[in-house]
Design brief:
Blueprint (H helix, E strand, L loop, with lengths): L5 E6 L3 H14 L3 E7 L2 H9 L15 E5 L7 H9 L7 E6 L7 H6 L4 E4 L3 H17 L3
Parallel strand pairs: 1-2, 1-3, 3-4, 4-5
Length: about 140
């Protein structure tokens, strides 16, 4: 288990997926602390850049873990990963969450810097397993 709280940023255009992810974190990953949620790739980049409303790092701290939907409006997961390759965020770990249509891109996403590429279609128990796995994985970097 991580010794300190892990700040988590969720990027997913589906409010339902964000709800279930938050619920799984609340129930199964006590060291995770969701600091914010964004709906688009551009909002994600704005958050990480500290742009506009996200400039206040006291209110919008940098995350330790990014849980990112592979398919988002505007900028998709690949475009965000490309952006991340050009910017330095020491310690940021990225978990890409994809539906079945995105799994063909798993190896490409991992090559582009994602630490994990996981299914988000696993249902309630699968989501619980995913957040427990991520919490255990994050403890390795503690």
């Amino acid at each position: 288990m991580p010794r300190k709280p892990v700040f988590v940023l969720i990027a997913d255009d589906s409010s339902e997926d964000r709800f279930f992810l938050n619920r799984a974190i609340g129930q199964h990953a006590p060291h995770f602390h969701v600091i914010a949620e964004v709906e688009t790739g551009q909002q994600l980049i704005d958050y990480l850049s500290g742009k506009d409303e996200y400039a206040d790092r006291g209110r919008y701290p940098l995350p330790d873990l990014l849980l990112m939907d592979f398919r988002m409006p505007g900028l998709d997961g690949f475009q965000v990963l490309e952006w991340l390759q050009k910017h330095s965020f020491p310690g940021l770990k990225v978990a890409v969450l994809a539906d079945s249509s995105g799994t063909a891109y798993r190896s490409d996403a991992l090559e582009m810097g994602a630490h994990w590429f996981l299914s988000k279609l696993a249902g309630t128990e699968g989501m619980a397993h995913t957040v427990r796995l991520l919490q255990a994985e994050m403890a390795r970097f503690d």
